[in-house]
């Protein structure tokens, strides 16, 4: 019946050639549809016919050829993983390198009782509970039927013992794999980063580079830091080996070999000696330090305390260590220089002063009387100065040297927040600095537009979105909405130190080609000039030098044989309404964050830095001594073993060291 | 006694509800291919039981989906066409603007809990939409209807293509074209479009993504990419060719079991089948597909409304397309595209959407008398 229908359909299909115009009749339409269906059926038959023809060709005509290929000459194509590039510091000291070691691996799909097999393996080689736990974790994460390491870094003796017992363990094999070693452990861990086993997200990333084939023999990939950002330089090119295998799948002989090409080596701009000195200066304190060479943008030190040992991650971190790192209240995995946004406090003052000079709203000599507080017109709220009774008559230089809040309340009152936003934005605040590792946060540089967008949500009303003069006053001393990252402050102070020319900060200086041994510098953006005149920059730099000589950080820089510029800052964590802040009365975690920015030598700076000590209290107390140790190391080569001391709080009321 | 009768009565009624919309020949053929799939999968997945249970769970879900769709009359499916299509296009635009990038392509929409691939929805929504449109215009279909239909295809196909997901874009275009073809697109136009397509080839070539170009080049010369797609086709050809006429026997495929075959439980499962069951097995499987397609064509041919005819016909041709493209790719006569072998390859999403297609066919078949006047 169907055949008759299909046949009738085919006959009527001739009418279709005239196009759809004459298809007004439903009867015709059914006939036309059947005609079309018959054509499709014909196409299906032809297509399947072609397929069957292809089957016959492969399975009958070419059968002998393919049988030979499959059975007598089984060629396996084995990828050979390339050696990952070496990472060194600016002087060639090795910070990360790969080495080859034996691992004992199990292919779970070929083993019936995993636990029993592991128990029997434990009689031959040492298998710690940590190894079992890691194996379990890998087993849960793995989706493919890949082989997973139960033990890594076997000794020669263990390899020999297993080889003698190999017949008892089908599906268990010894493999040579590459491991990564970070000889400095925690030091510079947040800059270097680490590698770890390739997961689904990494696979997707590899596929997006269209490099899936190149990662066939690779188990690990850069996860954070330079290891992540320069993955494609470091990885190298996978080699291919054609081997003949026997019926059991064992390699019998090698037929051809295209050797792998090692990854390129990276030379960082970091000086590991300076880095270690900076980390030692922190002691057990939490915080961040970024030191930059002003004339190049080279990051000389990149500290995030506490750090972590990247070696833990290399062959799969065990659960206990992971939880310890992940759940610690000290947040050792947080990259503080890039992702810690803190209110800048008084460290913002020199930059705002420069903004006011540039816009013409202030001259350096203009002086104001400081009664110890500032009041907005028509308001009873007093914005307090840190010094009771005020600093007397204050001009711009003195305001920076003694860190006079009232001067900057007045300055904020007389300038426009959006003008300040534009200037500060040119200095790199409120946006990523563009450092060459991932994860940088923009921080917050408030403006009218920013506030409107921040409070755009339906739960907010117009009164939340509106910019108030009071907001400007808080912003004037780096509080309120303002939040900067340590790298932003280091970047900005480096620009001031370098006569207003700002370089994009970067961690990798040059890349050495593994084959030609030629080094090429990393591509960078051209430096940008900040919109400030030289004479205005001179006013600010002069004031910063006086800060370290006779101002808030004079105690920390007492006896330094070089001249330097600096500025202290204290960021409020906890707001005490109307009460006076007494550090010893407040819980440690709620204590203020201490800031210090600096550069040296004053006339021809070779280093600029920003230090943040979380809950360190006053900037002059906790942060400035760390900066002093770092500058001493860089300029004088002084090495100190003990952490930087915390200078005792304000000595007297007239000598205001606080901030 | 009476209780027992009542029980049988109730059970009988339940059975009646369960099977009344099920087209037995179609169901039997689909299940036969599924059975072939399970047998092959057991071998392809190295006798791994977890794979089998996963696939069985997918099959269960797929059968439920099939039953639900089979019980929805075609006119109700037609009613869902426009909303589904509109939602699909909106989501594709959303993907282009806010989508999650996976594998370098922006294909996924992150809905918080789940990631959703709108192009999957479009595979069903586009044929439904076109069939619904032609049904609405039934009796007065003119040339501009085809122009509009071409636009309805082009918009989602272009959005999917620029994700970039050329394979799915082409499959979408094919499904749309099938509706137009079955609705009576003039032969002159079809020939003209084909000529235009051939002429546009060089232009399209320059607009392909690098990896797409690489795939086509690899197809022409597999030795250029021994670790990637070229390796797949070379090894698949060895597997099938070495199977010979009678095959190496179940679980005895050396290519499959010595791990020479990549993706052997998903897109390349046909190579395992061909190696172990030989030419006889291959021809048998093709005959099963042919029988399934023939039954589906009968259903389309006997359908009572234009919508039902078009959607049933398109579902049938898409089933054919998937089977042909997959087997063609594995045997090296088509380039490697990520298309699973219908009812055989491991994977839940494909299983569910295939049985939704079967459900649509069943719905068309079961409701044909109810609609005829």
SSE layout and pairings?
The complex is a heterodimer of chains A (659) and B (373).
Chain A lengths: L1 H15 L9 H36 L1 H10 L2 E6 L6 E2 L5 E13 L7 H9 L6 H13 L6 E4 L4 H10 L6 E10 L7 H4 L1 E4 L2 H9 L11 E5 H5 L1 H5 L3 E7 L5 E8 L6 E4 L3 H11 L4 E6 L6 E7 L13 H9 L8 H4 L9 H11 L8 E3 L2 E3 L6 E3 L7 E3 L1 H6 L3 H10 L2 H10 L21 H7 L7 H4 L3 H8 L9 H12 L3 E2 L5 E5 L6 E3 L6 E2 L4 H17 L14 E7 L21 E8 L6 E7 L5 H18 L23
Parallel strand pairs in A: 2-10
Antiparallel strand pairs in A: 1-8, 2-3, 3-4, 3-5, 6-7, 8-9, 10-18, 11-12, 11-23, 13-16, 14-15, 17-20, 18-19, 21-22, 22-23
Helix pairs in contact in A: 1-2, 11-23, 14-17, 14-22, 16-20
Chain B lengths: L1 H18 L4 H21 L4 H22 L3 H25 L1 E3 L2 E6 L4 E2 L1 H19 L6 H19 L4 H18 L3 H21 L2 H11 L8 H15 L10 H4 L11 H34 L3 H25 L17 H19 L1 H4 L2
Antiparallel strand pairs in B: 1-2, 2-3
Helix pairs in contact in B: 2-12, 3-14, 4-5, 4-6, 5-6, 5-7, 5-13, 6-7, 7-13, 10-12, 12-13, 12-14, 13-14
Overall description:
The complex is a heterodimer of chains A (659) and B (373). Chain A is an alpha+beta fold and 659 residues long. Chain A has three domains: 1-48, no CATH class; 76-268, Penicillin-binding protein 2a (Domain 2), CATH 3.90.1310.10; 332-505 and 526-636, Beta-lactamase (3-Layer(aba) Sandwich), CATH 3.40.710. Chain A contains 23 helices and 23 strands. In chain A, strands 2, 3, 4, 5, 10, 18 and 19 form a seven-stranded mixed sheet that branches. Chain A has a five-stranded antiparallel sheet with strand order 12-11-23-22-21, with helices on both faces. Chain A is globular. By secondary structure, chain B is mostly helical. Helices cover 74% and strands 3% of the residues of chain B. Chain B contains 15 helices and three strands. Chain B has helices spanning 2-19, 24-44, 49-70, 74-98, 118-136, 143-161, 166-183, 187-207, 210-220, 229-243, 254-257, 269-302, 306-330, 348-366, 368-371; strands at residues 100-102, 105-110, 115-116. In chain B, strands 1-2-3 form a three-stranded antiparallel sheet, with helices on one face. In chain B, helix 5 packs antiparallel against helix 6 (143-161) and helix 5 (118-136) runs antiparallel to helix 13. Chain B starts with a helix and ends with a helix. Chains A and B meet through helix 1, helix 2, helix 3, strand 1 and helix 8 of A and helix 6, helix 7, helix 8, helix 9 and helix 10 of B.
